[in-house]
Amino acid sequence: MKALPVIIVLIVLAVILLKASAYTVNEAEQVIITQFGDPKNTVTDPGLYFKTPFIQKVHRLEKRYLPWDGEPENMVTKDKKSIFIDVWARWRIVDPLRFYQACRNIRGGQKILDDLLDSGVRDVVAAHNLIECVRDSNEPLRYETEELETDRDRAVERIEIGRSELERRMLASVRAAADLKAIYGMEVTDVHIKRVNYVENVRNRVYERMQSERTRIAKLFQSEAEEEANRILGNTRKELDEILGDKEQKSAEIRGAADAEVTAIYAAAHGQDPEFFQFLRQLEAYKAALRSGTRLVLSTDNAFLNRLREAEAPAPAQP
Amino acid sequence: MSGEFEQAILFFMYPGRRYRRLLVLAVVVVVGLFLVSSVFYSIGPEEEGVLLRFGRHVASTEPGLHNKFPWPIDQVYPVPVQRVIPLEFGFRTLEAGRKTRYANPTREDQMIAEMLSGDLNLAHVEWIVQYRISDAFKFLFRLGGEPRQADAVENTIRAAAETVVRRLVGDGSVDEVLTFGRDRIAGDAKKQLQAMLDGFDCGVAIVAVKLQSVAPPEQVKDAFDSVNRARQNKERVINEAKGQRNELVPRARGERDRAVLEAEGYRELVVRAAQGRATAFLAQLAEYQKAPEVTRMRLYLEAMEELLGRVDEKLIIDESVRGLVPLLDLSPDRSAPVAGKGGRP
């Protein structure tokens, strides 16, 4: 029992010693051991390790991929367009010792990348037209209406390399700028364009262009509508005239033929004795023409009224 | 006074037996509790536990109650692998439900939504991405950079999503993202985003990419709408013209056919009438030819009988009477034709 305080002190001392010499490295870390500031050891695999207590220190570094998201920058393309581009990248520490010596911590690493990526991206952007930052292929652009597709006033730009290849070139440019691994112990694995747009003060011009493009198409529709409608009406007019003409012609033909036939029929019949026909026709005509209300002044010198004068048979004569 | 102080120190340094035991008991209890809480852990129904022993990954645990070695030997990280997490781009939902409320778009929202199309036009695109953690270990230990691991992974998903969607929208015309290409873009975005994240090997599975509201920029909306209006108007005008034609032409044809039928009717009428009369005449002629004089006289007298019977006023003058005709009243409203051989003034 007298030894109890001693035991406690010993246990405490043992724990302190353990804490000062044992250390773990987890799956997300890589570790540098320094002794009086000099790097002694690098550990990248996770597990339990031991070091010289108190003399040696543990510096933990990130083993995982880290994002670099730069501030959106204004840049100028080869075709003198002012654009606003937001690029992001992925990097990691591949040589912890080198990284620790050159950059000390992640903050330091990000700063190096800020410079490298900014100039790398700027160089690539300045060497290519705007369209290379936007399109990935030269597939013909399709629109909702034919009129827009064949709008000859719309400038169609073709790409030479395209967006994806541009990103690869940005990555290559960064890698070529400095031997990242040898100098900084870093590796950049991806560069991508997150956002690209016109600069604020250019956007209004873009809106105007979009507006005038669409307004032009709207007007085109209008004039097409008029043209088509007029064409249809014109054809309709023509068709109607044709039908009318047909109607008049056929009608007249039939009626004319009918009249001719009637004349022929009468001529054939009356022609057999024209004089008799005239006789009958005159009698009919008198019957029809002389109606009530007529005052006739007649002579007795006719075949009807001669009996009023005498009873003898008259000389053969006709009224 | 200093005596009391010394006594207090002496008390703590050399506590009596009873106090010593109590102290030891207290320490044992505290350590015991600590150990127990460090040994037992539970994994929720939608989680997976990633177990590290001395920092090294040794196992992944299922939902339920488990035990492990206490810290610092073992450490477990529960990761929600079943949960589907939505990410919104270009807008933010404040409150979902039957009547969803949206936040006022910030500058950042606007910048996320505005993008260039392949014809260098601008469109405003809002979309969502739904993702799920497919591999708990990879989710924890492939990407770094943020104190909260979920933030680190989400930042990467967001950056990748914007890259992919902009790449797709930037390849086609503005009409494609506004109208007919939406489904295709969403489908391709899901595939390409998944491919990119698989390249990063970060243990994320994309459940869906959906385009929500897509519109031309406010400033040009009217112009875009006017195109639709003009197109619809064109259809309407053409249809009206066609409708007119479809009304007038058949009607005209109908009239033509009717006129033809009428003419034919006329023909039937007059021809038959003529034939009838001709036949009648010929019949009469045949009779006449049998006894001409008698028939002629008969017809004449019959006609005269009927005729003069109808006439109201008859003035029968013998031709030997002279000088009467000039005295007759020949006022215009009375027709006074003179028959026979008379009529000499």
How would you characterize the overall build of this protein?
The complex is a heterodimer of chains A (319) and B (345). Chain A is of the alpha+beta class. Helix content of chain A is 51%, strand content 21%. Chain A contains nine helices and ten strands. The termini of chain A are far apart. Chain B has 345 residues and is α+β, with helices and mostly antiparallel strands. Chain B is 53% helix and 21% strand. In chain B, strands 6, 9, 10 and 11 form a four-stranded antiparallel beta sheet that branches. In chain B, strands 3-2-5 form a three-stranded antiparallel beta sheet. In chain B, strands 1-4 form a two-stranded antiparallel sheet. In chain B, a hairpin with a 2-residue loop joins strand 2 and strand 3. In chain B, helix 5 (149-169) packs across helix 7 (182-200) and helix 8 packs across helix 9 (292-310).
Q: For the report, how would you describe the main beta sheet of chain A?
A: 4 strands, antiparallel
The Rg value of chain A, from CA coordinates, equals: 57 Å
> Which outline of chain B best applies?
rod-shaped
Q: Which residues of chain A sit in consecutive blocks of at least 5 with pLDDT less than 50?
A: none
The residue fraction in helices of chain B comes out at 40-55%
Number of helices of chain A: 9
Order of helices and strands of chain B: HHEEEEEEEEHEEHHHHEHHE
Largest interface: A-B, 120 and 126 residues
> What oligomeric state do the depicted chains represent?
heterodimer
Structural class of chain A: alpha+beta
Shape of chain A: rod-shaped
- Percentage beta strand of chain A: 15-25%
- Biggest sheet features of chain B: 4 strands, antiparallel
Structural class of chain B: alpha+beta
Encode the helix/strand succession of chain A as letters.
HEEEEEEEEHHHHHHEHHE
Q: Could you list some keywords that capture this structure?
A:
heterodimer; A: 319 residues; alpha+beta; 4-stranded antiparallel sheet; 3-stranded antiparallel sheet; B: 345 residues; 9 helices; 53% helix; 21% strand; rod-shaped; disordered C terminus
